[in-house]
């Protein structure tokens, strides 16, 4: 990518040929007339998936593979690990990823080492002993940022790969491959798609062998993306730079205001100097993102009450949409380790004062 990312997002993956539409249309096809190099869309993709992969790949100067969901992308990366493999993962990875890891452990396939993502030395030490470092940065839901430049550059056991779930950062706020990571994964359901209207996922690598291997596993698992989802992901991604810029500016402003609100006991946003990984985030990220968590003073029931009282902010689980959403994370089965009063907040692109007014009324009305 020679253009700046915000220009690339608007200009790449389009035709300039006279008479062609500016946008690659959604191609709805499994089968193609022979003779052709593109036989079947599960193995060879379509024009629409090619355009999506070019668009997202260029953002990280990598080859991209598009998937039907973020979990399909994650599964294809994790399932390359052979029986007997050791992996280092964060303490609270995305719950779907945690589920794959638990299954692998229960079957006796893998040994999983769960590390505090803020403990950089633990990751440096693990790199000498494990077959995969799987990082998720910023991490769900304490928004912990891993020191990616240091961890990716650490000496590793032969064959050890570093993979980063970079969903919360987007390709705009960090490029882990630049630091030496081998694989980056995004749930493009979130900020890349940006409109809460699709599921999709992306895997990026600069290693041709890994690319071929993941492409092969994608066709074996049938983890391909459909034509409509690929089209909508591109359409959403065209405005990602605008959305992320606005949403993260809103997030910083709201984090600062929440920090001095009497009904709030803690705000977790990497852009705040009070965040445990603020210095690390500042050292290499180009933006702090639009994800934060905060704890309300009082009980878990109060946190649920706040979510229910919001009138503008949606009480919904997912994130990265143009609209603000929030959710009490401990209410999710399997997330009982999360503080009961913690609300995860995906800040959207609405006017910041309107979001603030909604938070204020929801907090004021809630029973403490
Ligand atoms: C949503 C999410 C996933 C899973 O992606 P899906 O598109 O829902 O399958 C993985 N990692 C993170 C950090 C996510 O937020």
Explain briefly what this protein structure is.
The chain has about 375 residues and is α/β, with parallel strands linked by helices.
Structure description:
This protein is α/β, with parallel strands linked by helices and 368 residues long. It has two domains: 233 residues, Type I PLP-dependent aspartate aminotransferase-like (Major domain) (Aspartate Aminotransferase, domain 2); 123 residues, Aspartate Aminotransferase, domain 1, CATH 3.90.1150. It has 15 helices and twelve strands. The strands form two sheets. A seven-stranded mixed beta sheet has the order 1-7-6-5-4-2-3, sandwiched between helices. It has a five-stranded mixed beta sheet with strand order 8-9-12-11-10, with helices on one face. Strand 2, helix 5 and strand 3 form a beta-alpha-beta unit. The chain is globular, with a radius of gyration of 21 Å. The N and C termini lie far apart (52 Å). The model has no long low-confidence stretch (mean pLDDT 97). The structure holds pyridoxal-5'-phosphate. Pyridoxal-5'-phosphate (PLP) binds next to helix 4.
């Amino acid at each position: 990518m020679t253009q700046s990312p915000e220009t690339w997002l608007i200009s790449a993956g389009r035709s300039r040929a006279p008479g062609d539409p500016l946008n690659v249309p959604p191609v709805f096809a499994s089968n193609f007339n022979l003779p052709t190099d593109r036989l079947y869309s599960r193995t060879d993709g379509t024009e629409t998936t090619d355009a999506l992969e070019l668009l997202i790949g260029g953002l990280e100067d990598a080859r991209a593979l598009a998937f039907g969901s973020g979990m399909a992308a994650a599964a294809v990366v994790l399932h390359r690990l052979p029986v007997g493999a050791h992996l280092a993962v964060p303490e609270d990875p995305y719950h779907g990823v945690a589920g794959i890891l638990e299954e692998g452990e229960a079957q006796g396939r893998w040994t999983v080492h769960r590390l505090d993502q803020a403990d950089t030395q633990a990751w440096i030490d693990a790199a000498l002993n494990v077959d995969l470092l799987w990082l998720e940065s910023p991490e769900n839901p304490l928004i912990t940022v891993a020191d990616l430049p240091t961890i990716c550059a650490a000496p590793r056991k032969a064959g050890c790969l570093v993979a980063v779930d970079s969903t919360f950062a987007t390709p705009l706020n960090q490029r882990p491959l630049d630091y030496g990571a081998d694989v980056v994964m995004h749930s493009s359901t979130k900020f890349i798609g940006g409109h809460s209207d699709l599921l999709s996922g992306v895997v990026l690598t600069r290693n041709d062998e890994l690319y071929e291997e993941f492409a092969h596993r994608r066709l074996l698992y049938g983890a391909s993306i459909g034509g409509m989802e690929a089209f909508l992901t591109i359409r959403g991604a065209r405005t990602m730079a605008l959305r992320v810029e606005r949403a993260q500016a809103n997030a910083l402003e709201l984090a600062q205001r929440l920090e001095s609100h009497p009904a709030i006991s803690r705000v977790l946003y990497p852009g705040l100097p009070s965040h445990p990984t603020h210095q690390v985030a500042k050292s290499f990220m180009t933006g702090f993102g639009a994800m934060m968590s905060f704890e309300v003073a009082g009980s878990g029931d109060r946190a649920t009450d706040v979510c229910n009282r919001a009138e503008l902010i949606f009480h919904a689980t997912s994130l990265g949409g143009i609209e603000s959403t929030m959710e009490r994370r401990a209410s999710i089965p399997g997330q009982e380790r999360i503080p009961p009063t913690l609300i995860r907040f995906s800040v959207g692109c609405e006017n910041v004062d309107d979001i603030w007014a909604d938070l204020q009324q929801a907090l004021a009305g809630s029973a403490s």
